[in-house]
């Protein structure tokens, strides 16, 4: 497996690569939210059918879920879990893997959970990447600055090693 030092000093990712990875991840996150919404909707329908809950002042179940803070919190937790789990375990979401990007500390180490949560909250649904337009030399997005991390572009070989989790070849 590659050591942390293998990830130090690599070029930081620009806006277009980040945007491409964000689009890939958006598709995955929307899919996960649809599955979570289906499960939540099904459990709510079951609870209504069994008489455990009632619609109250809502016209239908969709209106009830739309007004439910628990439902919104559940969907937020699914999205947050997706990003934090990938950033914490490998430094790469599915979209980042496709575009050979990795989020890391400047010493090449993986993010701590607190950094992941801070990064996700400050990303502003991806709009934090527009900070690169005002900060082109450092190539740090708003969420990178706030969470004290960076997004680097990996070589094909280094990306493959990370995906395969094989030992780094001896030089």
Structure description:
This protein is mainly α. The protein has seven helices and two strands; from the N terminus they run ααααβααβα. A two-stranded antiparallel sheet has the order 1-2. The chain is elongated and about 60 Å long.
Layout of helices and strands:
Elements (H helix, E strand, L loop, with lengths): L14 H35 L11 H6 L2 H21 L4 H5 L2 E4 L8 H10 L19 H6 L2 E4 L2 H9 L7
Antiparallel strand pairs: 1-2
Helix pairs in contact: 1-3, 3-5
What is the approximate shape? elongated
Percentage beta strand: under 5%
Low-confidence stretches: 167-171
How do the strands of the widest beta sheet line up side by side?
A: 1-2
Order of helices and strands: HHHHEHHEH
**Could you describe the largest sheet, including whether it forms a barrel?**
2 strands, antiparallel
* Helix content class: 40-55%
Rg is 20 Å
Structural class: mainly alpha
Calculate the terminal CA-CA distance, rounded to whole Å: 14 Å
Number of strands: 2
């Amino acid at each position: 497996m590659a050591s942390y030092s293998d990830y130090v000093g690599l070029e930081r990712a620009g806006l277009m690569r980040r945007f491409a990875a964000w689009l890939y991840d958006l598709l995955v996150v929307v899919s996960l939210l649809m599955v979570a919404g289906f499960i939540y909707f099904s459990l709510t329908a079951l609870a209504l059918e069994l008489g455990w809950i009632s619609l109250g002042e809502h016209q239908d179940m969709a209106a009830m879920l739309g007004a439910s803070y628990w439902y919104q919190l559940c969907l937020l937790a699914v999205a947050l879990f997706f990003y934090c789990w990938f950033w914490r375990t490998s430094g790469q979401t599915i979209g980042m893997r496709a575009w050979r990007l990795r989020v890391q500390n400047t010493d090449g180490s993986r993010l701590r959970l607190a950094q992941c949560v801070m990064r996700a909250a400050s990303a502003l649904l991806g709009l934090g990447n527009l900070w690169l337009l005002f900060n082109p030399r450092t190539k740090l997005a708003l969420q990178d600055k706030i969470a004290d991390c960076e997004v680097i572009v990996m070589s094909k070989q280094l990306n493959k090693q990370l995906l395969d989790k094989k030992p780094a070849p001896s030089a």
